[in-house]
Amino acid sequence: MADLTDPQALAWASYQRMRVRLSGVLGRELAAATGLSEADFDVLVAVNERPDESVRSLALRCGLEWEKSRLSHQLRRMEQRGLITREACEEDSRGSAVRLTARGRELACEARKHYDAAVKRYVMDTLTPEQVTALAEISATLLDRIEVTHK
Amino acid sequence: MADLTDPQALAWASYQRMRVRLSGVLGRELAAATGLSEADFDVLVAVNERPDESVRSLALRCGLEWEKSRLSHQLRRMEQRGLITREACEEDSRGSAVRLTARGRELACEARKHYDAAVKRYVMDTLTPEQVTALAEISATLLDRIEVTHK
DNA sequence: CCAGATTAGTTGATGCATCAACCTTGACGT
DNA sequence: ACGTCAAGGTTGATGCATCAACTAATCTGG
Question: Its domain of life (chains A, B) (predicted)?
Fold first, then answer.
């Protein structure tokens, strides 16, 4: 129950700084290249990866692990900008179905290319393969730890 | 210039998920324990760690690596909630100096304890020492990579 | 079949992050 | 000195994230 050791504190500080800077540059490059935010991007990709024409909000929400109000607000903004459309859902008339517009589909592909390239450039080409593996394992371990206590 | 490999894509997905969930639980626990946001916390700790009574906004900004308008907005909100006070700066009459209120100082200590304990619990006690070291190295490497191209 | 509980989704409010525009004050070259 | 320019900070606008309250449709037990 002791405090953090010095190396631990330094490791944490370094991680925090990296996390902030990295998502900063990735978000900025994405916005510069496509005009999309990361939230836009996540939604577009999630919808586009589906084989079906349209996706239920519910399915999106589960895939993204977002709160329902977050998704609702986000979809409203994206609809206003002409990236998606929303229509009634057949199976459940409470639900709604999301469909990409032509522009939405186009941007989804474009953005995916830019984003993956940036991840490659900033992360994958910078770390050794062993480090990439280590990062994956660390992430998986921490995720487990979180999910153990938070149901 | 190829795409991400499958393991790379999985590693990235895992990292992203961990990043979101971890800062989620840490932020939530901090808020539950103290009523502070992470932004509040960062500012309080940064001010409190100074030996001096009051700190210039400029110094804070550099330490936190925040934009000036971000800090200004944050300080306004914190002032309204009675965590800090702001006064004119002697050396440079453009500047402003920040001082913690009694409540601010108290919360800073309280929050630090809770936060460090949570980092220990979720991260340091979960990873092996080697993994902590690896994470620190990975973070430092990525930070270097980012700073090479940006600035 | 119906009453109560769940669930899908929306809405409004608030805090946080960023951008651009602005104001004041200090710095500097001439 | 003085004119110009840069720097410290504030403000307003917008988008994103979360919470709580709400509506409407579905499910479930009796």
Answer: Bacteria
Residue corresponding to tokens 């009051």: B54
CATH of domain B11-149: 1.10.10.10
First and final CA of chain B: distance in angstroms? 24
pLDDT band for position B151 (cuts 50, 70, 90): low
Please list the rounded mean pLDDT of every run of 10 residues in chain A (151 residues): 90 98 97 97 96 93 97 98 95 95 96 97 98 98 94 65
Average pLDDT, chain B: 96
In 10 A of CB B2, how many CB atoms?
A: 7
Each as own residue / partner, the long-range contacts of residues B13-21 (CB below 8 Å, 24 or more positions apart, any chain) are: B14/A135, B14/A136, B14/A139, B14/A140, B14/A143, B15/A135, B15/A136, B15/A139, B17/A65, B17/A139, B17/A143, B18/A138, B18/A139, B18/A140, B18/A142, B18/A143, B18/A146, B19/A19, B19/A23, B19/A139, B20/A65, B21/A143, B21/A146, B21/A147
Using the CB atom, is residue B112 less than 7 Å from strand D? no
Q: What's the CATH fold of domain A20-115?
A: Arc Repressor Mutant, subunit A (1.10.10)
**Interface mutation vs chain B, best among A29, A42, A132, most B CBs within 10 Å:** A132
Reported in sequence order, the residue ranges of chain B that DSSP labels E, i.e. its strands, are 54-56, 84-88, 96-100
User: Quick one: pLDDT at residue A151?
Assistant: 65
Point out which residues pair with A54 in neighbouring strands: A99
pLDDT tens-digit profile of B90-101?
899 999 999 999
Contact A60, A43 (CB under 8 A): yes
Contacts across the A-B interface (CB distance below 8 Å): 137
What are the residue ranges spanned by the domains of chain A? 20-115
